[in-house]
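Minutes, project check-in
Item: structure for the 324-residue chain
Input as provided by the requester:
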Amino acid sequence: MSQFESIDPTRLRWFAEVAEQLHFARAARSLGISRQRLSAAVIDLEAELGEKLFVPGAESTQLTETGTRLLHAARDILSRPAEPESGSPETTGLRVGFVPGVTVSKWERIWRERFPETPLEMIALAAADQHTALAECRVDMCFVRLPIDRDGLGVIPLYREVPVVVVPKDHEISVFEQVSAAELAAERLQDASDLDQAAVVFEMVAAGVGLAVVPHSIARLHARRDLVYRTVSDHPDTEIALAWPMATASDLVEEFIGVVRGRTARSTRSPSAGKSAASVSGAQRKSTAAKKGGTAGAKGAQPKNASARAGGRSGGKNVKRRGR
């Protein structure tokens, strides 16, 4: 086995995306993660291998010889179908997609604590791909940004996001905590409706071409030192929801819904809790029946024992009382 075989598949996939595009910002956008998180993952991978994967100080992103070898190996490794471990039964897991701006670490942590034996795969998706991924069953559930075609889907709205306007840090709007739509009327606004292209739009804002109004999480995801963002008080907000195909809903889907909605592990609405309660109830019924059977047997034996004791005391003869 080569030294690359043991690399975490997620980290390997992230590296491959950068290596293919040779651009960290575009790769981060494609993966639905922040550029900082992607850079940190590559640095950790270089530390793990003990070699540089990208040429330090190069004007444009370039692969080193090791980086090129890893890219070829990554293509081969990632193209292989997943196989269960030898001698172990295949474990059914849950695949949950999420669009840019959604932070899933809290729910992922709770799931792993509550269901350590059930794999959970979190899959970053482009916003434009959220409905297709569900329709093609590439994910079992997905954190989506509304609106979405709800036909055949179960949808639970989770929270709303305030809109912010992204401006150069030296722009006059930067001195305010929030602004109104009327105060932006005289400004040139970039079309930021395609959130998958937010990084490109932010490049335009940084170049002074115009401002952009986006959901707060998108501004945070693509944060830059040369840009700031301020709340827009009266601009329509956006809503994040959890969606899943109702035709393929399962106990695992219901369990994840419970995690997201804050149900405890003992909630009566949890399928696993219901099975546990049924098991306990069955055991209790058996225990109660056993106790009743033992008590009835003991009571049934008492008259015989009492008669025997009485017979023993009378010597087995009828005793008559003498009249006065």
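Outcome recorded: The domain at 92-159+239-266 is CATH 3.40.190.10 (D-Maltodextrin-Binding Protein; domain 2).
No further action items on this chain.
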